Amino acid sequence: MFKYNRTTLTKLETILKQHEYTVRYERGNFKSGYCIVENKNVAVINKFFDVEARINILIEILGTFEVDPEKLDEASLEMYHKFTQLDTSTSQSQKG
With the C-alpha atoms ordered 9, 10, 12, 17, is the resulting torsion angle positive or negative? Predict the structure, then answer.
């Protein structure tokens, strides 16, 4: 399990950065709280969201593309596994 704090947010941003994504926090009228500019690998997140919402959005964004473990350093890979285990256990509990 992980905590919803700035450290976790920074670790998620690092995972995206290691996949050549730029994370920006901007004002906007995003229906889902974020916008991804695919051809430029830019994720724009509503800057008025609190830390917990930002973390949840970054986890959601990570689920939209194939994460390459070879691009991640050891700490990022460990953090990514925590998020994927959480996602798997959440999905299984919703099915049962």
Answer: positive
Residue 96 has pLDDT above 50, yes or no: no
Assess contact for 78 and 25: CB atoms under 8 A.
no
Fold of 6-91: Zincin-like (3.30.2010)
Residue 91, pLDDT > 50, answer no
| Alpha-carbon separation of residue 58 from 4, 29, 44, 47, 81 (angstroms) | 12, 18, 10, 13, 14
Classified as helix, coil or strand, 48 is: coil
DSSP SS3 for 50: coil
pTM: 0.79
What type of residue is 56?
N
